[in-house]
Amino acid sequence: MNKLSTSKRIQVISALVEGAGVNSVSRMTGVGKPTILRLLANLGKACREYQDRTLRNLTCKRIQVDEIWSFCHGKDKNLPDELKDQFGYGSVWTWMAIDADTKLIPSWLVGGRDASYAEKFISDLAGRLAHRVQLTSDGHKPYLEAIWNAFGNDIDYAMLVKLYNNPPSGNQTRYSPGVCCGARKDRITGKPEKKHVSTSYSERLNLQLRMSNRRFTRLTNAYSKKVENHIHSMAIYTMYYNFVRIHSTLRVTPAMEAGVANHLWSLEEMIGLAS
């Protein structure tokens, strides 16, 4: 990677954050796959460390959280017995939080979907906030204890529980879940404003992630082969999303809107973190 010019590194990273896979980026840029993966690892580590120390004391008011599914190495049903139930093989969940006002991603975590990862994710999120917030999650039960342990009564928390009809029968069931026929807003703690009990922004963020990061694209062979690269990819994506990419509604980056950046970052500046 040390011999790779800045312009080539910009080409590689700009393609990766716009939804291209590693193999296609290699073909487009002429950069070897091992070199791309080394750049991914070095820059991913640098982006993760920078955001970890920078996204602190945030003045967010309304937070939405959600989890998005993907898999590494292979799907659960295709794993050999010796790899089942090992982290990094099979289903992998990415927990993400988004500020409904600034659209900043203040916290994310790659892991399982059980209570232990809920605790880690919510604890990390709580440590980045400056004051009391309103928080909305879906009906995933591990959030209940995790949010109580991290915030206690010092939060306005509600769950948005979606209600579904029975799924279609026959071959359609694989890709067609039940139709959402309504939603229930459950107050859990504090006094959350009902009009702001929503997961719309977090669900839109999930869609954007699937469109902008090839590793999350369904029904392809572009999945992560190693969970370490999956984590590096997420670190680069969130850095690009927060600091480099101008939000179409805000007309600035989420980091600028949130007051954690005073200028629009360039890809060159972002890549310079790994120098």
Overall pLDDT score: 93
Counting copies of identical and different chains, the oligomeric state is single chain
Q: Which band does the percent of strand residues land in?
A: 15-25%
Percent range of helical residues: 25-40%
The SSE string, one letter per element, is HHHEEEHEHEEHHHH
Low-confidence stretches: none
Write out the strand line-up for the largest beta sheet, numbering strands in chain order: 3-2-1-4-5-6
Give a written overview of the molecule:
- This protein is an alpha/beta fold and 275 residues long.
- It is 38% helix and 17% strand.
- The protein contains nine helices and six strands, in the order H-H-H-E-E-E-H-E-H-E-E-H-H-H-H.
- The chain has a six-stranded mixed sheet with strand order 3-2-1-4-5-6, with helices on both faces.
- The protein is globular.
Task: Summarize this structure briefly.
The protein has 275 residues and is of the alpha/beta class. The protein has helices at 6-16, 22-29, 33-54, 115-126, 142-151, 200-212, 227-244, 254-258, 267-271; strands spanning 62-72, 90-99, 108-111, 134-137, 156-164, 180-189.
